[in-house]
Amino acid sequence: MAERRPDTMERGTIMAERRPDMEEKKPENPPASDSAYTEEEEAEVKKRLEDLGYVE
Amino acid sequence: MRTVAVDILTGFLGSGKTTLLRHVLAHGLQGRRVAIVMNEIGEVGIDGKVVTGLANVEKMVELSSGCICCSIDDYKFDLAIQEIVETAKPHLIVIESTGLADPEPLAYRVKSSGLGLDAVITVVDAANVERHLKETEVARAQIEGADFLVVNKTDLVDARALERLDKKLARLNARAERLRTVRGAIESDLLFATGVATYRERARSASDHLHVDGIGSFVYRSPRPLRQEPFERLLARLPADVLRAKGIVRFAGRDWYCLFNFTCGRHELQWVKLEGTAAPAENQAVFIGRALDRHRPRIEADIAACETDEEKRAEHG
Fold first, then answer.
1. pLDDT given for residue B47 in this prediction
2. Which residues contact B169 (CB under 8 A, 6 or more apart)?
3. Strand duo B57-63 + A8-10: pairing
4. Ordered mean pLDDT values, 10 residues apiece, chain B (317 residues)
5. Which B residues in the span 145-164 are in contact with A, Cβ-Cβ below 8 Å?
6. Yes or no, beta carbons of A46 and B247 under 8 Å apart
7. Quick one: how far is CA B302 from the chain centroid?
8. Fewer CB within 10 A of the terminal residue: chain A, N end or C end?
9. Which residues of chain A make contact with B199, given a CB cutoff of 8 A?
10. What span, in angstroms and rounded, lies between the C-alpha atoms of B140 and B64?
């Protein structure tokens, strides 16, 4: 499916991905196999967030 | 998840964009992977050759079939961005526009392609900007669309002319932070997304209160979810001394995390789904700017006022 265009909320604010309330709620306790990333990918995502200054 | 930040480097013909970029790539960005999109109007790219081969440059893409703000279609632009993200996996993409590009439509394109716009950096030729402003509309658009105005070639004008120019730039764009440089030699931590991580590290140091440039930083942490609307209002009302703010927060009632990026009065949000070890245990935000000793208590109090008890909110909700 083609990626959605972002939804503009107001001037200066843009949703770069689908809004959370447009997503189906995930189960409260998903099994480990349903995790969005592998352990390696999780580590990579964490590192990238650190490098960009989002988290420490 | 596309955690890639994009900086747009613009400025009129001959203002020194490529010189600045070359300096930054050679001396800054903490060795983080950078991809460059170089847009030149001519068929043969010259500027691209100037930055190719520098250590930080993971990938270099030349778009030379037209101006990136108006002549290159969305499909071609998205394709170039997608290829860069997938093959180079950069932390940062720097798009150097042609000297005749309006940064606003380009900024919109970046956001539409699903990437985070970090900052619009406009290089201003101190010696020739008055003429550019008289002769073209786009020079004004480049100044008005900037988050950072880098006034270059300051060695070619006297102090009085520089003062006049500073006032004029402030009138054209009061929101932008103005910086001065000669031959593009500028410290890049404040300008580019990757520098934010450096300010985080500095904030941990007790001696961070004041740097030579007067710019400091502090980090806010909280385990409780925030209410989105007041938090966005807070971002919109941050004092002008706050030049950058960046972080990840969880809003009440949301199961996605929000990456926020504030640059010189403009902010944007990106939503990301994080699980496992990638999911942070707390909200984290770094604030970078001047006189933060004075502003910090108020900012912290305002964020604390956004915190909420999620369960209680659900009862009312």
1. 59
2. B124, B143, B149, B151, B176, B178
3. unpaired
4. 85 94 84 83 56 64 70 77 86 91 91 88 96 95 97 95 96 95 87 85 65 82 94 96 95 92 94 85 94 95 92 42
5. none
6. no
7. 24
8. N
9. 53
10. 24
Closest CA to B233 of B299, B310, B138, B155: B299
At residue B120, φ and ψ (nearest 5 deg) are -105, 120
Do strands B148-152 and B177-180 pair parallel, antiparallel, or not at all (unpaired)?
parallel
Q: Are B122 and B149 in contact (CB under 8 A)?
A: yes
Is there a contact between A23 and B256 if contact means CB atoms under 8 Å apart?
A: yes
User: SS3 string of B171-213?
Assistant: HHCCCCEEEECCCCCCCCCCCCCCHHHHHHHHHHCHHHHCCCC
The CA angle B102-B105-B110, to the nearest 5 degrees, is 120
Complex ipTM tops 0.90: no
Beta bridge partners of B221: B284
Q: Going by DSSP bridges, is the β-strand pair B57-63/B257-263 parallel, antiparallel, or unpaired?
A: unpaired
Contact B268 A53 (CB under 8 A): no
Tokens at residue B98, please?
A: 């042609």
Contact with chain A for residue B278, Cβ under 8 A: yes
Two tokens, residue B252: 């009440």
* CB B18, CB B111: distance < 8 Å: no
* DSSP code per residue over B127-174: TTHHHHHHH-SHHHHHHHT-SEEEEE-GGGS-HHHHHHHHHHHHHH-S
Size of interface A-B (CB pairs under 8 A): 113
Other beta carbons less than 10 A from residue B20's beta carbon? 24
- SS3 of B36-87: the string is EEEECCCCCCCHHHHHCCCCCEEEEEEECCCCCCCCCCHHHHHHHHHHHHHH
Contact B111 A16 (CB under 8 A): yes
Per-residue buried b or exposed e for A39-49, using 16+ beta carbons within 10 Å of the residue's own CB: eeebebbbebb
Cα–Cα distance for residue pair B38/B98, rounded to 1 Å: 8
